[in-house]
Amino acid sequence: MIAAAGADIRAEEKLFSELDAAEGGDGDHGTAIVTAFNAMAKADGDDFKTYLKNLSDRLQDEACGSTSTLYGTWLQGMSEAVPANASELDAGGVAAMFRGGLDEIGFVTRARVGDKTLMDALLPATDALAAAQTQGLPAMFAAAADAAEKGAEATGPMRARFGRAKNLGERSIGPRDAGAASMACIFRAFAKTLN
Amino acid sequence: MIAAAGADIRAEEKLFSELDAAEGGDGDHGTAIVTAFNAMAKADGDDFKTYLKNLSDRLQDEACGSTSTLYGTWLQGMSEAVPANASELDAGGVAAMFRGGLDEIGFVTRARVGDKTLMDALLPATDALAAAQTQGLPAMFAAAADAAEKGAEATGPMRARFGRAKNLGERSIGPRDAGAASMACIFRAFAKTLN
Amino acid sequence: MPMKKFINDPANLTTELLEGFALCYKGKVKIVSDKIVVRATPKDDGKVAIVTLGGAGHEPALSGFVGEGMLDASVVGDIFAAPGAPKLLEALRMLKREAGIVLVTLNHAGDRMSAAKALREAQKEGIRVREIVTHEDISAGVDTDPEEKRGLAGCIPLCKVIGAAAEQGQGLDDIVEIGERFNRQMATLAVAMTGCTHPQNGGPIAVLPDDEMEIGMGQHGEAGGGRSKLLTADETAARMIEPLTQATGVKAGDTAMLIINGVGATTLMEMFIVYRRAAQILAAKGVNVIPGACGEYLTVQEMAGFQMILCKLDEDHLELLKAEARTPYWTA
Amino acid sequence: MPMKKFINDPANLTTELLEGFALCYKGKVKIVSDKIVVRATPKDDGKVAIVTLGGAGHEPALSGFVGEGMLDASVVGDIFAAPGAPKLLEALRMLKREAGIVLVTLNHAGDRMSAAKALREAQKEGIRVREIVTHEDISAGVDTDPEEKRGLAGCIPLCKVIGAAAEQGQGLDDIVEIGERFNRQMATLAVAMTGCTHPQNGGPIAVLPDDEMEIGMGQHGEAGGGRSKLLTADETAARMIEPLTQATGVKAGDTAMLIINGVGATTLMEMFIVYRRAAQILAAKGVNVIPGACGEYLTVQEMAGFQMILCKLDEDHLELLKAEARTPYWTA
Ligand SMILES: Nc1ncnc2c1ncn2[C@@H]1O[C@H](COP(=O)(O)OP(=O)(O)O)[C@@H](O)[C@H]1O
Ligand SMILES: Nc1ncnc2c1ncn2[C@@H]1O[C@H](COP(=O)(O)OP(=O)(O)O)[C@@H](O)[C@H]1O
Ligand SMILES: [Mg+2]
Ligand SMILES: [Mg+2]
Ligand SMILES: [Mg+2]
Ligand SMILES: [Mg+2]
Q1: What is the CATH number of the domain that holds B37?
Q2: pTM
Q3: Hey, which of A130, A176, B94, D81 has its CA 20 to 30 A from A139?
């Protein structure tokens, strides 16, 4: 799943950097997220907990910027939320894992829905996973991908309140948030591999 | 005469800077020669010797670069070549005055005709003044202006061997030399005021 | 138009630039563990250590100020990107000492998040460390919540001051007090005239129309809101020094220092001309302006523009600024 | 496109920039007689004085190196233009002393002509002064007549060396010998990637196509002849360090110093990357490369490019380079 998402992310690298620049950021989100996936490609681990922790560590070691800490924290939270030695997860376990990731991110940033950050995609996607728990993994991820995409779309007319883009004020309105767009791309890739 | 030449020089300021840049110099000859004429406008003196010396001093005080020393030296040489207290000069005196200026410039630079510098205009103009001595001042300056202009024209196809432009080598070929062009402009202005 | 920079593979930018920096100043600094710049000869560990973190691409900042009298370590991220929390934690472990550590964090989301994560872990491990967050950019308005204000080049004189205090052997709490007082009394405002290119992806940052400039530009070319037609140097200086004076509260009889930090393509010629007018305006207000600095300290690639930093100084700051410093890019 | 610079009336550029410079570094320098920059506290006049001359627009050069351990005076012309001979003569009169004066002249037509005129007059007046002409630019070819080679930023380490010798109280002849030996053993090569704008007339200098660079560019953007497509940092470093090694004769076992002088818009990031490769190549040849410098010392407005300076060092040079210097833009 990481490999598939990595491929889709790499294909859109330029777009993510352009969105970062367009909303008033420093135009490097594409570079950051691609570096993150390159780092994650080197991770391994026999069970979910170890693998997720390894993903988090690799990513934080090699990727920099907000992306490093946000994604690193997300993966770390997921790792902490899965049981030790588990090498399979049921629908409830997956939903709990993503909930754990979201909770941990909440510790490093105060951003929530409406602040024009990746939280606009991640929050509804995590909620959708939980809501669709009874319908099995493919349906859960399809719902999450739709929710993430809708969330990312909605960031266009928002005014950035966190991250570098916030300094632009009114002028940040228009383009989607770079981090929300890449997060939606990741959930879409997850959904595709499960179908 | 200085005032008239100054007006013509000012009108062409941009051209002289462009020629300086085009032949591979630093694109400031227009600025330098205009500064020189602004400085000279403040000079006075009751006789030729004092006035010329004053022109030279003012110019060297305020103008900078090669122009400062070349023109300053030229005027100083002229001052030294005229008799003390003279407030009028006959044709021979004028020719001798310009000859003195040229000789003194020869002290600060080894450039001669063919090196793509102001010497390509000044040398033939000074010779023409001497050659036309018997025909009176207006004819002398008309001949000098023609000679200076022909000399400046001829610098186009030359390869610069002195000044900043020399570093361009082959690529200095094409545009006229900036200093030769401004020198020709000065002689033309002198010729016009005498007509 | 292709990007015109002297670089090799964009992926290796930070590693290569740090290698070159360390080779060039090998008497003064060295790289440990890939992205941590430390002094060639460490400071006596009975003294408080000063550490900072930040992305690359802003050279000489921040690593150029590692050395005698200023920083003990600079933890470097990728271009314009904060280093990850694990790297910072590693540096904090390396400098762990009873006297303690001061971590200087510029207020940018990435740096703050890395610092928060690393500090939480460091404190768990019993490392004695206190953070000073700089947020002296007044482009969002003098009265804006400090949490919302960016940290710009004002961190450099701040590091000079606390670095000197640490060198004197002052205690952790005193150093933090001196630093926070300096922090509160300084303000920075940036202006940009042209954008620049991101050296990794070649993309444009902060494009400005041919006849406009922007007061309030951020450290990475993030926009600031104060667009105007081109102004003269004197007009620009006046527009910037007035709010800075207001923000710092500098008034007649006070002592202050003025720094012009070029961000890339703006010449020292221009910085001197701007410094001149700003210093004249301060002098006319009766402020005692001590010698300052004009130069490139914290840059934004080849962007044309500068940051104007005004620091109101107390007696102790004045003395600490004068104390010996021998880093690659700041000496006293 | 209008010129984008923070300036006022272009006619006052030099005066205003010098005023700003002197205000900013008032503890170290002051302006006398309009365009002569001297130390705030003069050196003991039992010691030889070091003077140089040159146009403005190259800041911090040359006035930025006036101060303890380097220059006693810098005589400044207008933008890119040598000062007139009378100004230089005035400075020589001001510094007249039995110990003598060394005048450092960069080999450019205007500077040479002013120096020649002023020296002739000074000698008539019994002022003891000797000239060192720098002409270390090898762009015209290593074997070119020195009279035909330009003086670039190599004059700065040269001034450091002779400045230190003067500070030690060495005699005029010894200082000239040390300086001429340093002069013969150094070489500089410049490269440009973009042109710049003349700050007085707004005209373009040294326009380069979007995908080309030029090795051999002069101090004022005068062309040099080595046009090529854009090269990487490593390729550029290799193409430049090889002829410099040849010109200086640096070989295994020798000690050398490498300096990268940014001319305007090129970032320190890039200079470090270039320094890295050039130093690695020298080290691979068995050369002992001592700590060097990367920074903007002698600039050409906002041009992108740099000068690479290689100096082969004798024992005495090595020691003189390390001696204390506390000028605004060069310290040791
Ligand atoms: N404080 C924050 N809280 C939540 N998300 C943030 C925050 N700061 C940045 N982001 C997210 O990170 C994205 C930018 O990532 P990136 O460009 O890699 O970081 P940087 O700001 O270090 O250049 C933004 O588009 C936004 O989605
Ligand atoms: N060594 C020299 N000998 C004769 N003329 C020279 C010399 N150097 C420069 N010139 C003349 O001066 C002109 C350039 O003047 P200017 O641009 O004012 O000087 P600078 O070279 O100081 O920028 C050249 O076009 C040339 O005619
Ligand atoms: Mg970004
Ligand atoms: Mg010129
Ligand atoms: Mg970034
Ligand atoms: Mg010139």
Answers
A1: 1.25.40.340
A2: 0.90
A3: A176
